[in-house]
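Hi R.,

As promised on Friday, here is the backbone we talked about, encoded as structure tokens. Could you run it through your design pipeline when you get a chance and send me back a sequence?
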């Protein structure tokens, strides 16, 4: 069966559709033909059986104990063939077309009980010379006596053979028509698929601006496939555009530290240097290498986050408090720049501990680099089912043009170009939050930019620059 399925699977789809349609039609035709043949055969046999029963009722009273009829003329008037036989198959009496040769064997007679039995003698195909339909009645059990009443089946068999021939011819004709119709239907149904295939081949060859021609006034499986394919192409084209933009921007950002490194090394090699000068040059090179390493690490983190789904959970309150405490211990001189407000209860979120640490660290770095103290960090549950992390600073905020694209990779204000950083911090936060089914909000002076799944929480309308992270606690 597996080998047959493998062979069938290698056939063209149109051939398989036509074969399946023809096979289903064949089953239906066979079932219908069998039913018609059975009904006609039943009606013809019922007519013969009625004639046999009537003849039996007439002949039984006329048969004596010795097997001879008391009124031969009345027996012959029934118009049927009849025989009286004993248990050995010996013909004791006969009349009508039946001769002295027994129509049934002793073994067949032994199967007859008190209930009359109907037996067909002679083949249906090929046609027998003397086809009979017999009704056998047991006259007495001891000594055994049997009455055989029979009528010829010539007319009945001829009618059935003619019906069988007509059903076969009509069935083959109907099967041929259904196969032709099925082939036309399959060809018409697969024509749009072939058209889509040719268009897809053109798109794969490099013409990415092409789209499938989908009829606007139709809504079936093929048109829905076309719409889905077009949507997929649009999504892929957008992803490729973003990828090209990312590569371009990454190349631009990586070019600056690499150029600085090359220039410093070339400058250092122009003349002999003292050990102190070498140490100063190495310190400068270490700064550039550190910037390059941080940029590479952030790019790797963005690559790991893209397309991932949250599989771990953590407590936002515990991780945020721990991260801020570690930050204060690492930089005690600026420990007072950050104030934190945490609730007493836990708030589970669909992010791992290190992902929450990355979100908090990036937001605090962004506020420290581009904002001004004091920086206020608040963690609460504004509505049931949602956890909120708010980082606000007293800095000048973002201009409207930058606010709308602040979560894009390498997005930086012109005045921030000389400052450390690569413009990837908010991109990492946005990727983590939206990947976890949350929402990221950037608000400043009444202007708001959001990304991710909208949360049922109002935005902040204060003048301070605030970054709000909203995560569903029910997902954790």
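Update: got your reply. Pasting your designed sequence below so it's all in one thread:
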């Amino acid at each position: 069966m597996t080998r047959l399925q493998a062979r069938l699977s290698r056939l063209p789809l149109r051939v398989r559709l036509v074969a399946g349609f023809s096979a289903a039609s064949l089953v239906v035709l066979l079932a219908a033909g069998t039913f018609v043949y059975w009904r006609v055969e039943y009606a013809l046999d019922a007519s013969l059986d009625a004639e046999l029963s009537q003849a039996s009722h007439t002949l039984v009273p006329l048969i004596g104990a010795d097997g001879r009829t008391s009124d031969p003329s009345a027996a012959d008037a029934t118009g049927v063939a009849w025989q009286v036989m004993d248990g050995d198959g010996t013909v004791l009496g006969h009349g009508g077309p039946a001769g002295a040769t027994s129509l049934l064997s002793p073994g067949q007679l032994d199967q007859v009980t008190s209930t009359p039995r109907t037996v067909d003698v002679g083949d249906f195909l090929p046609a027998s010379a003397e086809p009979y339909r017999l009704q056998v009645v047991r006259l007495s059990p001891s000594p055994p006596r049997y009455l055989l009443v029979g009528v010829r089946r010539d007319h009945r068999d001829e009618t059935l053979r003619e019906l069988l021939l007509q059903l076969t011819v009509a069935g083959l004709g109907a099967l041929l028509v259904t196969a032709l119709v099925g082939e036309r239907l399959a060809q018409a149904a697969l024509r749009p698929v072939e058209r889509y295939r040719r268009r897809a081949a053109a798109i794969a060859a490099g013409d990415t601006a092409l789209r499938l021609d989908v009829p606007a006034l139709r809504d079936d499986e093929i048109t829905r496939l076309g719409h889905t394919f077009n949507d997929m192409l649009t999504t892929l084209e957008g992803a490729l555009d973003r990828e090209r933009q990312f590569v371009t921007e990454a190349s631009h950002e990586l070019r600056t530290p690499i150029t600085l490194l090359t220039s410093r090394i070339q400058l250092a090699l122009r003349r002999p240097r003292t050990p102190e000068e070498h140490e100063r040059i190495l310190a400068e090179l270490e700064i550039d290498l550190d910037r390059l390493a941080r940029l590479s690490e952030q790019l790797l983190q963005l690559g790991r986050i893209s397309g991932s789904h949250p599989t771990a959970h953590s407590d936002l309150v515990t991780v945020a408090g721990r991260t801020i405490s570690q930050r204060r211990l690492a930089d005690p001189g600026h420990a007072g720049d950050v104030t934190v407000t945490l609730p007493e209860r836990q708030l589970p979120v669909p992010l791992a501990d290190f992902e929450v640490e990355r979100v908090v660290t990036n937001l605090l770095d962004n506020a420290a680099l581009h904002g001004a103290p004091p920086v206020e960090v608040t963690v609460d549950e504004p509505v049931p089912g949602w956890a909120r992390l708010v980082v606000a600073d007293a800095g000048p905020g973002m201009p409207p043009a930058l606010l709308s694209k602040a979560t894009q990779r390498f997005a930086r204000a012109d005045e921030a170009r000389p400052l450390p950083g690569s413009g990837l911090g908010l991109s990492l936060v946005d990727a983590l939050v939206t990947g976890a089914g949350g929402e990221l909000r950037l608000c400043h002076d009444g202007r708001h930019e959001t990304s991710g799944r909208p949360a049922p929480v109002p935005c902040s309308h204060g003048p301070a620059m605030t970054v709000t992270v909203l995560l569903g606690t029910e997902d954790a």
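One thing I noticed while checking it: The CA atoms of residues 111 and 117 lie 9 Å apart.

Thanks again,
M.
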